[in-house]
Amino acid sequence: MDAVILAAGEGARLKGWTSDKPKGMITLGNAPILEHIVKGLASSGIQKINMVVGYRKNIVMSYFGDGSQFGIKINYIEQLKLSGTLDALSLGLKGIEKDFLLVPGDNYVSSASFIPLIHNNLPALLAGKADRWSKWGEIEFVKSKAKITFDNPEAFGRLHFTGIMKLNVEVARKLIEAGGVHIGESLQKVENSVNFDVINSEYWHNVVYPWDLIDGNRLALRNLELYKSGKIERNVALKGPVSIGSGSVICSGSYLEGPISIGDNCVIGPNTFIGNSVSIGDNTRIGAFSEIRDSIIMSDSVLGSYNSIVSTVVGNGCIFGTNVVSNPSNRQITYLDHTISLSNRGAMVGNRCNIGNRAVLAGGSILLEGATIGEGEVYNADFQGDTI
To answer: Are residues 308 and 161 in the same domain?
Structure first.
């Protein structure tokens, strides 16, 4: 069986992290979201992928190549104008003749969730529980028939369509002919002529906003591939699954409690605590006597000594001084004209930000790419759409 991955979008709600790459190349558990999808499809028996690319396409194509290193064949189809998922589906059908899986390239899903879809005899929708409204729509059953609705904005814990489905070419063409911009819209239009089975995912996470990366990282680290290629100095304690990349050094007196993924050529410590659901990207330095918990620190960043970073996202190429604090809190923020209540989240720091010594980043605050926070400053603003 083949698969079509929709990977053309930029991810406007994550623009602080996507200036140099498409949304699907943001890392969870130190691997791009797309890599988790490609590996999951390959391990499920999918043999060929048509990957629809667009924004920053060369980043995707150079990373995955022809797919051979992942045990799968990948063809690339460019969506020249980002005009919606339905248009991307139409492009992705090139060369496909039988049943196939359709997979958005920006959601984290367990590889085990693909298996029941593949073996299902009928077209099927993959469903998952969500903590808020999903762009793909909510699944309701009317007289045992699955229908897509967008009518319930407060859909906490209810069953949502993940955007992942099993289709055949005939049904795919019906969706395209039904029209609309979004696949969810076309599903509503064909609901009286096509029956879809509904299959529940093992776990699925809808990555839309910056704070979604924290939960996605926790899920990705469940399937952590363990490497200990770096150097571990004396008096270092490791507890639980900890992966350490080539050329990395864990300095003396540090305590690491997994799951943790540390990339290549990193330096951690000395006397630093890294704890529970942390990903640290390549070429990153974490200074002495620091504490990093439940966070993503992306590649090429430098964090000074005595920092306390909890439930926080730190983008690529950031520089933090010493004694910086970013700890979680509960708050309501306004982000891209939406008012959202956040629970237990630290700051969301975009790529290439500079944070001065003794700065405090309030939980839930969002910094755009290239923002600067001065020495001793307390940053407590919502995202406003401008540089700081």
So the answer is: no
| Mean pLDDT (whole number) for 229-258 | 96
Q: Which phi and psi angles does 261 have, rounded to 5°?
A: -120, 120
Q: What angle do CA 169, 171, 177 make, to 5 degrees?
A: 100
Q: Are residues 202 and 265 in the same domain?
A: no
- Indicate which CATH number applies to the domain containing 367: 2.160.10.10
Q: Are 356 and 322 in contact (CB under 8 A)?
A: no
Residue 385 lies in a domain: no
Q: What are phi and psi of 85, to 5 degrees?
A: -70, -25
Burial class (CB in 10 A: 0-12, 13-18, 19+), 374: middle
pTM of the model: 0.93
- Which tokens belong to 378? 């307390």
Whether the pLDDT of residue 355 is over 90: the answer is yes
Which stretches within 1-159 are classed as H helix?
33-43, 57-64, 85-92, 114-119
The domain total for the chain is 2
Could you tell me if 199 and 248 lie in one domain?
no
The answer to which of 60-64, 194-198, 222-226, 261-265 has the lowest mean pLDDT is 222-226
Same domain? 201 vs 235: no
Distance separating alpha carbons of residues 220 and 208, to the nearest angstrom: 16
- Whether a cis peptide bond, with omega within 30° of 0, leads into 259 is yes
Residue 79 sits in the same domain as residue 41: yes
Q: Which residue has the higher pLDDT, 316 or 205?
A: 316
Host domain of residue 300: 226-379
Quick check: is 219 in a domain? no
Tell me the per-residue pLDDT of 367-383, one tens digit each, with 9 for 90 and over: 989 999 999 999 987 65
Mean pLDDT of the chain: 90
> Angle 94-85-367 (CA atoms, 0-180°, nearest 5)?
130
Cβ-contact 279, 297 below 8 angstroms = yes
Whether residue 308 sits in one domain with residue 161: no
Q: What is the mean pLDDT of residues 302-329?
A: 97
The pLDDT value given to residue 386: 43
